[in-house]
Amino acid sequence: MKLRSAIAVGTAFGVLGVGSAFATFARIESMGKNTTYIMDDVSIFDNAANINLYPNYLIGEFGPYTQNVETGKNQDPMYPNFGGIFSISLGDENNPDPRISIGGLFGRINSELFRYLPTRVVGENVRDTSKVPETVTNFDGFLGGTLSNGDAWGLHIYIAHQDGGDKTKSGTYQVEPNAYASIVQADAGLNLQFGSNIDFELSFALARIQYGPDHKHFFDDGDFSFLAKSRAFFTLEAIDGELVPAVSAKFIEAPGINNKHAQVGVGINVALDRGFFWLGADFIWDQMKAHDWTVNYETGETIFNSMEVDDPAWDKRRDIGGMISFGIERNIWYDWFVIRVGGQKSILYTDCDQHEKNKGRRGICSENGNFFSTNPLANGTADDHVGFGFGINIEEKLKIDVTVAEDLLFRNPFQGEGRIFSRISATYSF
User: Fold this and answer.
1) Are 201 and 189 spatial neighbours (Cβ–Cβ below 8 Å)?
2) Of 47, 50, 51, 49, whose CA–CA distance to 204 is shortest?
3) How far apart are CA 169 and CA 88, in angstroms?
C-alpha cells in the first residue's frame, strides 16, 4: 500500500476492504491474530515508519479482558492504553510530502518481550526470593517522516520500567527494595516505494531485558537482544489485492534465557465487495535454551534461580513447523457496521533436550522427548485458534472495534457468568 495514497484510500473506504485502514488491536485479534499480511495501525509497532500512514490520529482501548472472574464480581480489563500520532505537512495542497510525524502511546504491554520475564527470581540464597514487579512506565515514543517522493522513515523507543517498588493488593504502590524489572527497545524502520506497484518495509530493533533482585545498569551483564522484520506489498490488479512475502528473525538474550527464532511466509490480501480477506502461510523455526528456570505448568508461575548462573545447565527446546492464518471482514446491513472473523493454526514438531543435571526439575523441558504441539485451542487470548468481532464506523472519524468473547453464545445468559467482550478499542482521526 503506497504511503501517498494510503491515507486517501483509508478515508474513502474506512473499515471496508483495503490493505490500509484505521483500526486497532481488537480488529487484529478478531480477524486473524497478526498483522504480517495487512497494513493496519498496529503495524506501527512492527515498523515505526508506518506512523506516517496515520497522521492526526488518536487511539485507545480498555485492554484485554481474558482473566477469570468469579460470577457476580466486577473486574476491569487489564492494561488499558491510549495515545496518538500527529503530523505536520511540509509540502503543498497537491502533495503532503515531505512531512514530520510524532506519536506516543501509554500503557501498552510488549508481549513479544514480556514473555521473558519470570514471575519470581531467587537472589543470593533460597530465602532471598522476590516477585518480579509489574512495570509502570510502559511508554511507546515515535518520530518519523516522509521524503518528497513518499518514502518514509521512523524511529521508535519502548520503555517499561519499575525499580524499588511494587503494587500492593489494594492497588497502591509501596517500597519493595528488591523489586526491579526493565524492558527497553529502540528500533528504526523504512518504508520504500519501488515503482507504482511495490512497497518494501524493513525494520531493526535493539532490546534489553533485565530484572532483579538487584538494581542493574543498562550495560550490566551484556544481555542484548536483536529483532529484524521485512516484508513487501506487490499490487495484483487482477485480484484487486496484494501479494505479501515476509521474513522476521529475533535473537533474544535475557537472564537464563537464549531464544533464536526465524519465520518466513507469504500471504495475500484481497478487497471484496463491501469486505476484505487475507490469508497467510508461514514456516517457523524456534530454539529456546534456558538454565535455572522452573516452570509450574499448573499455575503458569516461572522462577529464575540466579544463584547457579556460574555453572549453567542448559535445557533446549526446538520447534519447527508451519502456521496458517486468515481473516475476513464484511459490512452487513449498514455501511457503518462490519463483522469480522479470523484464526490461526500452527503445527510444530518439538524436540526437548533436558540437561542431565536438571532431571526431576520442571523447566522449559520436563524431560527428554519429541512430540507435536500447536497454539492454544480456545483460551480466549490473542494466541488461540479463532477470533470473532465487529466494528462501528461513525462518519469516517470515530471507529470502535470489539472482540467478542468466544464462549458468549454457549453460556446461560441468566446466570450472569463470564464476559461478553474480551477487547474494545477505539480510534479517532481528525
Assistant:
1) yes
2) 47
3) 44
Helix (H) or strand (E) holding 12, with range, is helix 3-13
Residue with cell 469516517: 396
Cell numbers of 275, please?
469486505
CA distance 109 to 44: 14
- DSSP sequence for 309-360: TTS---EEEEEEEEEEEEEEEEE-SSTTEEEEEEEEEEEEEEEEE--GGGTT
Confidence category of residue 4, pLDDT binned at 50, 70, 90 = very low
Beta carbons within 10 angstroms of residue 406's beta carbon: 19
Q: What angle do CA 51, 54, 57 make, to 5 degrees?
A: 115
Residue closest to 1 by CA, chosen among 46, 27, 37: 37
pTM of the model: 0.88
CA-CA-CA-CA torsion for 83, 88, 94, 98, nearest 10 degrees?
Answer: -100
- pLDDT at position 93 over 60: yes
Alpha-carbon gap, residue 189 to 206, rounded angstroms: 12
Sign of the Cα torsion 156, 121, 380, 70 reads negative
Q: Which of 280, 368, 382 is nearest to 318 (CA)?
A: 368
Max mean pLDDT among 156-160, 163-167, 414-418 falls in 156-160
**Of the candidates 14, 28, 90, which has an alpha carbon nearest to the alpha carbon of residue 344?**
28
E strand residue ranges, 90-237: 99-106, 120-122, 129-131, 139-146, 152-167, 173-194, 198-211, 224-236
Residue 120 burial by Cβ neighbours in a 10 Å radius (0-12, 13-18, 19+): middle
- Preceding omega of 213 cis (within 30 degrees of 0): yes
Distance (Å, whole) CA 163 – CA 187: 24
pLDDT per position as a tens digit, 317-361: 999 999 999 999 999 888 899 999 999 999 999 999 988 888 877
E strand or H helix that includes residue 21: strand 20-21
C-alpha to C-alpha distance for 387 and 384, rounded to whole angstroms: 8
Grid cell digits, residue 77: 480489563
Q: What is the distance between the alpha carbons of residues 104 and 83, in angstroms, rounded to a whole number?
A: 5
Closest alpha carbon to 425 in 57, 142, 49, 36: 57
